[in-house]
Amino acid sequence: MTWLITGGAGYIGAHVVRSMTGSGEQVVVLDDLSTGIAERLPADVPLVRGSVSDRALLDRVLARHGITGVVHLAAQKQVGESVEKPLLYYRENVAGLTVLLEAVVAAGVRRFLFSSSAAVYGVPDVELITEDTPCVPINPYGETKLAGEWLVRATGRAHALSTGCLRYFNVAGAATPELSDTGVFNVIPMFFDRLTRGEAPRIFGDDYPTPDGTCVRDYIHVADLADAHLALARKLAGPGTGDLTVNIGRGEGVSVRELADVVGEVSGLDRKPEVHPRRPGDAAKAVASAVRASEELGWTPRQGVREMVESAWEGWCLRHPEARGD
């Protein structure tokens, strides 16, 4: 099989490419490099620069490379920005997906893996979030991911595609420093950024109904997440898969205060966090049930929160050597 990975030069995408090529899968990357970095990719992986909204380009790539499956990662993914720019998010995440699926159907591709998000659930008040927990997204980003799932499943039913949706929880860490996240949008790099500038990390709300009053989240190492893509891709390549939707998390909760403590220990820049008011829409607890991933994919996460923080810190220091006085 030959897989087209859209967004394959991004933070998560480059890890997926690494996992799949390292296991012998043939891969082609399509990325507009708006946030992706070409140097993340192995030299022998073809990179096509372009958008999933370019139908003519998609037709050429699918035909020229004999693509037999697609892993669709390319998307806009910042929650706050989605509130400010909903039209951008629907255009890129839903309209762009529509164009891609049209090209996939026309080319006779029969396997499609969709990168979704735990944002589809909104803020459910449950101990563990299963794949059957009702989806009530509370921002345009989550809405576009849920609409994307609907579109992928409907296309699969109508055109005999084997489809799968992976609902990521909180992704962190790096397989190597060079593949680390370059953005400062998620909590761990946000802590690093504050500490590097000599400022205290921020915690938003310490009066939640949790053991230490701060939000509890499920964190997954990006290398484990990449291996989950490989496991699902191989399952889709088998007979009679149909459709499969799977949570990707560790099934264990870590509070924001606990995470701040680990960041302080790993970085050596241990400062007492500042507590700020709650942010609208933050759930007290959001932890995945990882049962289906184990049963259906034979996948279990291997790395814990400390490994995530340590590997993320190495990547941060590669780009910010001043963080540890180098």
Structure description:
Helix 4 packs parallel to helix 5 (140-159), helix 6 (187-196) crosses helix 8 and helix 8 (256-267) crosses helix 10 (305-319). The chain has ten helices and 14 strands. By secondary structure, it is of the alpha/beta class. The strands form four sheets. A seven-stranded parallel sheet has the order 3-2-1-4-5-6-11, with helices on both faces. The protein has helices at residues 11-22, 55-64, 79-84, 86-107, 140-159, 187-196, 222-236, 256-267, 291-297, 305-319, and strands spanning 2-6, 26-31, 47-49, 69-72, 111-117, 162-168, 170-172, 202-204, 216-217, 219-221, 243-248, 254-255, 274-276, 285-286. The relative contact order is 0.14. The termini are far apart. Helix content is 40%, strand content 17%. It folds into two domains: 2-171 and 220-248, Rossmann fold (3-Layer(aba) Sandwich), CATH 3.40.50; 172-217 and 250-324, UDP-galactose 4-epimerase, domain 1, CATH 3.90.25. Helix 1 (11-22) links the parallel strand 1 (2-6) and strand 2. The longest helix has 22 residues, at 86-107. The model has no long low-confidence stretch (mean pLDDT 96).
Number of helices: 10
CATH level-4 homologous superfamily of the largest domain? NAD(P)-binding Rossmann-like Domain
Give the structural class. alpha/beta
Task: Detail the poorly predicted runs.
Answer: none
Order of helices and strands: EHEEHEHHEHEEHEEEHEEHEEHH
> Averaging pLDDT over every residue, what do you get?
96
Overall shape: it is globular
Helicity range of the residues?
Answer: 25-40%
CATH architecture of the largest domain: 3-Layer(aba) Sandwich
Describe the main β-sheet briefly: 7 strands, parallel
Cα Rg: 19 Å
**How many extended strands?**
14
* Residue fraction in strands: 15-25%
